Amino acid sequence: MAKLLLLLASFSGFTGVALGAFAAHGLRSRLPENLLGAFQTGVQYQLWHTAALMGVALLLLRWPEATLFKSAGALLVLGMLLFSGSLYVMALTGVTKLGIITPFGGVAFLLGWLCLGIGVWRHL
């Protein structure tokens, strides 16, 4: 599981930087300010949670059977897909109704952080 999460973090870091550059250089003149802001928020949250995902994966190298760390990793990935993904699609398509998905990603992030915190409390 640790290897998978590290690979996902690497992919997420790569795509987060690429999407950030795309927003700064390719979208700035093409999107309204509110949609560009939504896209940039998606990038920020993706990159912050990429760093967290790497931390979770490193903890799993030490405690490979820690269910809470596995859950934290899965929830952080789900959060990135739902939160950042919905913001990207919304910004690029202009379909703002997709914003209804974003809070579900936020909840996944919160649950991931909660699992991480409880896991740390139990194992460290």
Structural class: mainly alpha
**What's the story with the biggest beta sheet?**
none
- Got a strand count? 0
Mean pLDDT, all residues: 97
Helix content: over 70%
Q: Could you name the ranges where pLDDT drops below 50 across 5 or more consecutive residues?
A: none
Strand share of the residues? under 5%
The number of distinct helices, counting runs of at least 4 residues, comes to: 4
The succession of helices and strands, N to C, reads: HHHH
Shape: elongated
Tell me the span between the first and last alpha carbons.
20 Å
Number of separate structural domains:
1
Computed over alpha carbons, the radius of gyration is: 15 Å
Task: Summarize the structure in words.
- The chain is an all-alpha fold.
- It contains four helices and no strands.
- The longest helix is centred in the middle third of the chain and has 30 residues.
- The two termini are about 20 Å apart.
